[in-house]
Amino acid sequence: MDPLRAEARALQAEIAALRRACDDLPVPWKEASRLQLLFRDAQPSGSARWGSAEGLRAQVGRLESELSFLSALTGINIGSYCRKTEDLTSTDMAEKGIKKVVQKYRLSGNCHVVTFQLEFRVLEIQDKENLSSVVTDFNVIMEPTEFSELSEFVSRAEEKRDIFMFFRSLHYFVKWYEFRKRTFKHFKEKYPQVVRLPEGSGSRYMSICSTRRPGFALIVVWRIQIDEEGRVSPKLDLLTQVPQQALELDKNGVIEMAPLSFRSLLSVLGIEGAVESLIKLFCAERK
């Protein structure tokens, strides 16, 4: 019975974290009323219903099913979970009906290709009327990877001790990362003679090399930014690589204005349309 109880409680904790991550997702997710209804109706049963081994097994089965559903929805998978409780209640506090504990959590998992390990502490103080809780420590452990854009965000999340901002922003960062990867791969396969990905399939920038003029290239730099509030957005810039002699001959400043023109294209055509137009314009053969 005890192992089943422990497994059920661990699953409940994982589901609570994923449910909070889902609750923080913006409007398009919240429009799915069926999902919201599922979240409300799928609250874990009370311990009073865990009186038998069969009841525990049924509860574990329901929790595993819900956890699988939430993982598929958010892309966040919890691989391992551990919680330890430290009682800090003094004799005076106990006499006043006050209970003070620290919950120490450790969990590891992944969001698609990004793996993480979280360690955090929650201080809980309960009296006869109220229960208050606050995250007192929050640490994120990530292996050195290609996702250098995440390092500043992770430090900010640790400083704010905002666990749910971490999950929400990580979800959208991975969405944009996968979209960038697919987009660059598409253009590399469509224009193999002119498109280069210097950093490989997960490259943060794409080079467009002229087949008519050696030494001429355009570089599309695609960053994924996470602001102070955890909002994730793409930021694209254009760099030019041209010989000095060509710069001196460019009396109309076409090369200098190229980055600004590219931003205008982005606002009108979107990311894929702007990059496609850029490739066709830069690499079109003269008739």
Report on this structure.
This protein is an alpha+beta fold and 287 residues long. The protein has 9 helices and 8 strands. Strands 1-2-3-4 form a 4-stranded antiparallel beta sheet. Strands 5-6-7-8 form a 4-stranded antiparallel beta sheet. A hairpin with an 8-residue loop joins strand 5 and strand 6 (205-209). Helix 1 (2-23) packs parallel to helix 4 and helix 6 packs antiparallel against helix 7 (163-190). It starts with a helix and ends with a helix. 18% of the residues are buried. Mean pLDDT is 78; it is low at 24-50.
Mean pLDDT reading: 78
How many runs of DSSP E, i.e. beta strands?
8
Instruction: Kindly estimate the percentage of residues that lie in beta strands according to DSSP.
Output: 25-35%
Q: Name the poorly predicted regions.
A: 24-50
Name the structural class. alpha+beta
Tell me the overall shape.
Answer: elongated
Number of helices: 9
The secondary-structure element order is HHHHEHEEEHHEEEEHH
- The percent of residues in helical segments reads 40-55%
Major beta-sheet overview? 4 strands, antiparallel
Give the strand line-up of the largest sheet: 1-2-3-4
Radius of gyration: 26 Å
For the terminal residues, how far apart are their CA atoms?
A: 80 Å
Q: How do the helices and strands line up, and which of them pair or pack?
A:
Blueprint: H1 2-23, H2 27-30, H3 33-41, H4 53-74, E1 76-87, H5 91-95, E2 99-111, E3 114-126, E4 131-141, H6 150-160, H7 163-190, E5 195-196, E6 205-209, E7 217-226, E8 232-241, H8 244-249, H9 254-283
Antiparallel strand pairs: 1-2, 2-3, 3-4, 5-6, 6-7, 7-8
